[in-house]
Amino acid sequence: MTELSTKFNPTEVEAGRYDKWLAADVFKPSGDKKAKPYSIVIPPPNVTGKLHLGHAWDTTLQDIIIRAKRMQGYDTLWLPGMDHAGIATQAKVEERLREQGISRYDLGREKFLEKVWEWKDEYAATIKAQWGKMGLSLDYSRERFTLDDGLSKAVKKVFVKLYEKGFIYRGEFIINWDPAARTALSDIEVIHKDVEGAFYHITYPLTDGSGNVEIATTRPETLLGDVAVIVNAKDERYQDIIGKTVMVPFVNREIPVLTDEHADMEKGTGVVKITPAHDPNDFDVVERLNAQGYNLPMINVMNDDGTMNELAAEFAEMDRFEARKQIVAKLDEMGQLVKIEKMVHSVGHSERSGAVVEPRLSTQWFVKMDELAKNAIANQKTDNAVEFFPPRFNDTFTQWMENVHDWVISRQLWWGHQIPAWYNADGEMYVGETAPEGDGWTQDSDILNT
């Protein structure tokens, strides 16, 4: 007779038991046509790392439910799967590469993706082992990964369908830009933090020699991309300068003094510099002014890595924050720095890289949100309304939908669903589930936001 241990040893007791369950197919659907079906799709964990306590808690609750339904005679399926998690996983792999002294650009797209698949295989195996440790009653014969062929085909099909209906389009707008990851970000990928900054009060000379105008900015490096200065049409202080021009420091660009409602008479000096390629409000101002026939340009003065580009005059190739210091110092030397007003303000940071986000004019793919938002709001007044707990969050939802703007869905990354659009040398674009016939077509290098 085997002597029982005086202490319970779970490792010894559980050894091999989960493998026996899987070998016996006890977690697969019964196939009983008379039984009511009941299924759960596991919220797919990202392959960015190991499962944590939150995963254990959530999957334990699901396991309790699916086992109870199985014992009640339902034909049950608990479908496992994992999420490729585009930007999150790519950020992890790039971090590992940096520790080796290389970047994804050193490897190139194909070799880099090989590294990401290696990462995926490593952490997918760890996640499955953790599921096994918890004894989750999953049907692995149906396991899915979000980059599987079937799911990839579904993504392409939906993209093309929404494009054909006019809900997806390609356009140039101000977006959140991560200069470390070198990609666009959605609003929810931006974390706002309070940091110490400053209002830099600067004078621009009127070109007719009649004086100066004073503006205030938190980002003086962007003045190199200024295309106008605005005042409020009702501001009596500036009636005599409307229509005149001022000179932008360093780049010697003559820009007009115009009027727009964006200029707040009660805020600062009431004079606002307009940099449409680096500020969403300024972009909107220029859109309005150009609709009036002003034909103002959009001047982007930064590279995608946060350094200043060739349009930044003597500050070209400098890091944006170094350029800020240099510009402020030189403005002081020139007598055009009035004062520096220290303050704490909210600054957007990338959720993944931690870099300060740069508002940047960029060509991206977007989902048109106005009609979708209107339909979502209207649905809340029907019997099919989504019920929020606590109910006050219905007001939050409505506020979000009323203030929504078009959603940027493209990312300048390599790990993910590549956008099913192709371009040729004639400037033509083709959107389809498969590549167009003929030679000379190049697929869009961007991937879709996950």
From TrEMBL:
GO CC terms in record: cytosol
Keywords per UniProt: Aminoacyl-tRNA synthetase, ATP-binding, Cytoplasm, Ligase, Nucleotide-binding, Protein biosynthesis
A Pfam family it matches: tRNA-synt_1
One example GO MF annotation: ATP binding
EC numbers for this chain: 6.1.1.9
Subcellular location: Cytoplasm
Species this chain originates from: Pseudolactococcus chungangensis
Signal peptide: none
Residue ranges of domain Aminoacyl-tRNA synthetase class Ia in the record: 17-431
NCBIfam families hit by this protein: valS
Source taxonomy: Bacteria, Bacillati, Bacillota, Bacilli, Lactobacillales
Gene Ontology biological process: valyl-tRNA aminoacylation
Class of this enzyme: ligase
Protein name as annotated: Valine--tRNA ligase
Main location: cytoplasm
Subunit structure: Monomer.
Highest taxon, organism lineage: Bacteria
Entry's family note: Belongs to the class-I aminoacyl-tRNA synthetase family.
